[in-house]
Amino acid sequence: MIFHDEPNAGDPFPHLPDHSSQGRLERVLRAGHFAVTSELAPPDSANPEDVYDRARVFDGYVDGMNATDGSGANCHMSSVGMCALLTRVGYSPVMQISCRDKNRIAIQGDVLGGAAMGVTNMLCLTGDGVQAGDHPEAKPVFDLDCMSLLETVRGMRDKHEFLSGRTITDAPKVFLGAASNPFAPPYDFRPHRMAKKIAAGAQFIQTNYCFDIPRFKEFMARSRDLGLLEKVFVLPGVGPMASARTATWIRNNVPGIHIPDEVINRLAGAKDQKKEGQQICIDLIQELREIEGVSGVHVMAYRQEEAVAEIIDRSGVLDGRVPWYPGRDEELLKERA
Amino acid sequence: MYSVRLWVVRHAGAFERIYNMFEPVLVKLHPVWNKIGYQRAEKPMSKIEQACKGLLFDCKMCGQCALSSTGMSCSMNCPKNLRNGPCGGVRLNGNCEVYADRRCVWVEGWKGSQKMKNGDRIFAVQKPVDFSQQGSSSWLRVVRQISKNKEQTREKSQ
């Protein structure tokens, strides 16, 4: 699918009045398409090709890639750095901002820097605690929390002001996202917390891994009762598990991920556990897309990134739509000729 | 103290009532604070506040108390200093992601808020913490603010 006002690679879209950003992800979502985003694992290297190689595996299947910001409190290439590389060739990254490592001065600087490089989507996160990563001795910053971070970036965009009240001459035009985890207690507070995030400025929500469909449906039903679903695009998180052992390890060691026993049993009972993990992911995507208020999916396929294309393809959620990638339009034109 | 803190949150409704009686008394004493000078009252007052709230809530003296909006569970005890609700890392048993053997401050706070008359304050988005207020008396700040507002409305009505 090519928009009628498709810009040259790396250039912003023309500004539409009801859009906050000039980016592709917001365009796709507001046009009513089922959007697909994926998690881009940052390299432990200073080689730009490592970033491009990792991005390329998603070509033609995703509308946005999350450039993670020290996820799991492990040190990798920075989110800002990855975004600089990705926007250079026209990709639409979602720049993750975590409150763990930077105070409000550094964060606001990064927001301006990111937007200047063409980042149009930003995801505001609290961040995992330092104890979860490879530098447990680091000082946790947490100057802001995800909520005040959202308000801060929204203020920069809409009021053209820093948190201090000082004026910003050219505001960062960004589509603002937040995370939500319906699968962690207290379950009945989770929809209210999403409501707070929306009140603070969130326009799209990506959730943690969703394996527990009944729990997610309950969360969405409560969110609908609170009138949230018209105000926000919800992209539940999914991902293939490589084996029952991996799934069990993740369940026990990664904060905030809930994998029900049925999923682990299904994996354990399969002949080819990796294939079964992908099949479970496809089944989940198909179930999720039927739930009211779901606008897309966010695929987190850590160490199985090359499987994302096939998973999305077989799930059929793109309905033949080909998300943009560098060189896509030239290829489409060639096919048509 | 951890066990006292948990006990207080279980009785959040009672502590809300106590504070609601206590605050007007402090406000009534505004002329006294004014006479002493808020600046001079600051040191002894913050000491008293720290002693009381330290015992009851494990207060960290952030200087901008939000207990009425957090179900009487001090959110500065959250290792991520979250002021707006629990993070996604809460364990299935309701314990903290960082301190596996401790209850999540916000899981308790959410329960506490349901016992309070104005518990729905937990739904309001809290401003970022002003770290320049750390160590100062939140009580005096509130009293000063309320008295100032009262004076302003009085001036307007005249």
From TrEMBL, chain A:
Gene Ontology biological process terms from the UniProt entry: methionine biosynthetic process; tetrahydrofolate interconversion
Cofactor(s) of this protein: FAD
Keywords on record: FAD, Flavoprotein, Oxidoreductase
Reaction catalysed by this enzyme: (6S)-5-methyl-5,6,7,8-tetrahydrofolate + NAD(+) = (6R)-5,10-methylene-5,6,7,8-tetrahydrofolate + NADH + H(+)
One function term, GO molecular function aspect: methylenetetrahydrofolate reductase (NADH) activity
Region (Disordered): 1-20
Alphabetized SUPFAM superfamilies for the sequence: FAD-linked oxidoreductase (SSF51730)
Pathway entry: One-carbon metabolism; tetrahydrofolate interconversion; Amino-acid biosynthesis; L-methionine biosynthesis via de novo pathway
InterPro entries hit by this protein: FAD-linked_oxidoreductase-like (IPR029041), Mehydrof_redctse-like (IPR003171)
Gene3D superfamilies: 3.20.20.220
CDD domains: MTHFR (cd00537)
GO cellular component term of the entry, any: cytosol
Family indicated by similarity: Belongs to the methylenetetrahydrofolate reductase family.
Stated name of the protein: Methylenetetrahydrofolate reductase
